[in-house]
Amino acid sequence: MWPIVEKAAKDNGLVTAFAVVGLMMLLSGFLSKKLTFGRVQGSAIAILMGLALAYVGGRITGGTKGLADIAFFSGIGVMGGNMLRDFAIVATACEVQPTEARRAGWIGAISLLIGTVLPFMVGVLVARAFGYTDPVSLTTIGAGAVTYIVGPVTGTAIGASSEVLALSIATGVIKAILVMVFTPAAAGFLRLRTPRSAMVFGGLAGTVSGVTAGLAATDRRLVPYGALVATFHTGLGCLMGPSVLFLAVKAIFA
Amino acid sequence: MIIYGTAILALCHLLGIVLGDLLGRALGMTTNVGGVGMAMLLLIAIRLQLQKRGWLHPKTEEGKLFWGALYIPVVVAMAMQQNVVSALKGGPMALLAAVLTVISCNLCVAAINRMEPADAPTAEPSPEK
Fold it and tell me: Which of A3, A21, A74, B68 makes the best surface tag, with the fewest CB within 10 Å?
């Protein structure tokens, strides 16, 4: 019996993923109501469970794609992959109030700039404190603190070692996970209530995945506003990392 | 027809990605610059135009809203395939850099959002509050 079930799941990966994620949402909604009395949103619990399962999957298979590396769950890779993720993000644009977005456009742009330079500086200083002195390593780790894509793109462009690249990616991934996990808890402190505040957050918190998952678990209606700004994050980082920021680090530390 | 909405969404998505790649190329990079953001802006613009002409059929809207509603489940699936193992292996330096980055950025978010005029409208009047 089981081999037949397994084959059906493998041959219909995306359909299996819809069923698995649906069941997880049901379970997390139930836990949210019964265990936390609605204080912790169901989607926040589902994302946390997802990350925990990703850890389990990574441990079992030794792969890099969490649960999606297990054949039975391979459809998760399609459902949570870049294509469907971006498609769903674009679709949320239907909920954007154009006047709101236009009014907060400039503050979003400023946030985006701070959100690139500030993490970079923090990353460089931490790397310096841990004994890295060459501008290439410092820049690569700093860029990783912007997003986990900016890190390796910058590092590859300026010729960083693979060990530093790995550290840089790890920094970015941890940052994204921290944003996903702690945004709902910090939402009050961050004043995440309005479209404008979500756009500021989208610019500063970085990574589309972190921002949108964090906002999704906080208030679903804020997602499109945060995503609208956050989507420029990686592009701006990849633009500034190997150029302006690298030159600045070279001027200061070399 | 529902497929019209989904097709509009798909065309905006593709066009945005192409524009993002072209912008990246123009700036001398191989990465996509803001493709998804441009796709969102395109979709907003097209929707406004259709609305103005009265061509925005509710069925067409459904073809887009369905995918927007799938957003959270897609994010959950995305969480399930993060490389959590290697993130935890990055060691104290990666962890410290990430924690300090998130804290400093969050302080900025809190500061900027506290400057927001108090009369600014909230996302939408929500019935439960």
Answer: A3
Q: Give the tokens for residue A95.
A: 């909920």
Q: A65 and B48 in contact by Cβ < 8 A?
A: no
8 Å CB contact of A114 and B108: yes
List the single residue in A46, A123, A198 with the smallest CB-CB distance to B101: A123
User: Domain ends where: B38, B59, B81?
Assistant: B81
Q: Residue B58 domain-assigned?
A: yes
pLDDT digits (tens, 9 = 90+) for A38-86: 666 777 788 778 888 988 998 999 888 889 899 889 999 999 888 888 8
pLDDT, one tens digit per residue, over A216-250 is: 888 888 888 888 888 777 778 877 888 788 888 88
Domain containing B12 equals 2-81
State how far residue A1 is from chain B, nearest Cα, in angstroms. Answer: 27
The ipTM estimated for the assembled molecules is 0.81
Place of tokens 């920094």: A171
One domain for residues B92 and B111: yes
| Contact assignment for B95 to A174 by CB distance below 8 Å | yes
Query: What is the end-to-end Cα distance of chain B in Å, rounded?
Result: 36
Number of domains in chain B: 2
Residue B88 with chain A: CB contacts under 8 Å = 55
Q: How far is CA A124 from CA A170, A173, A233, B111, in A?
A: 15, 17, 18, 23
- Same-domain check for residues B15 and B35: yes
Which residues in chain A are contacts of B84 at CB distance < 8 A? Answer: 51, 54-55, 58, 66, 173, 177
Instruction: Tell me, yes or no, whether B9 and B59 share the same domain.
Output: yes
B26 burial level (CB within 10 Å; 0-12, 13-18, 19+): exposed
Q: Which of A90, A97, A124, A208 to mutate to test binding with chain B, by most B CBs within 10 Å of its CB?
A: A90
Among A130, A174, A223, select the one facing B71 at the smallest CB separation. Answer: A223
Assign 3-class secondary structure to A179-240.
Answer: HHHHHHHHHHHHCCCCHHHHHHHHHHHCCHHHHHHHHHHHCHHHHHHHHHHHCCHHHHHHHH
